[in-house]
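User: I'm curious whether this sequence folds into something compact or stays loose and floppy. Could you predict its structure so I can see for myself?
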Amino acid sequence: MDQNQTSSTVIIDDQTQTPSTTTIDQHQPPAPAPAPAPAASPVVGLSMPLVVSLVMRVLTFILLLISLIVIASASFDTFDIYGFPVTIKSNDFYAYRYMISADVIGMAYTLLLAVLTISHLIKSGSSIGSGLAYFEFYCDKVISFLLGTGAAGGLGLGVEFNRFLDSGKDIQHFINMANAAASMLLLGSVCSTISSFISSLNLPNRSKA
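Assistant: Here's the prediction. I'll summarize afterward.
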């Protein structure tokens, strides 16, 4: 008997009552198995609020870093009451010390939270859970307040310098650098405030995770 023999099946059409023949190949190869679905990447499932929050934190860190570098390098030369030359640095003023502290604390918090969020996202495929959600919610408010007050203090001191000090070249350069650093800190506080708003909106959902 031929191995490639085919069998015929007779099918009766109900309407015409005429038989029809359908050929079935007994040696038809089986259909290929469907390809396995690719593993879902946690990056693909990122929600828009989480992406915006991470972008705002990166911008906050960059702005605070620029502010810290500028204010830490600001200085000018003058003379003391005895006529000896002295160098005045930014950390000789309490307002600028507060600015530097705000920069350092804000950078440390922003970097810490960004690392925790990304690591939790890679491991579980979702944003941070309930415990860290409350930590983010309250700390965002404190950091935003700290950065905003630091910027306000630096800008206010710059205005007072322009009012009461002589407009020497070195002093004016120092004031301009301090105002630039305070402006970067102010922009950083705005980005941090946006992140704070997002964490407030996401808290009800993320606290249930």
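Summary: The beta strands are 7-12, 19-24, 75-79, 85-89. The chain has a mean pLDDT of 76.
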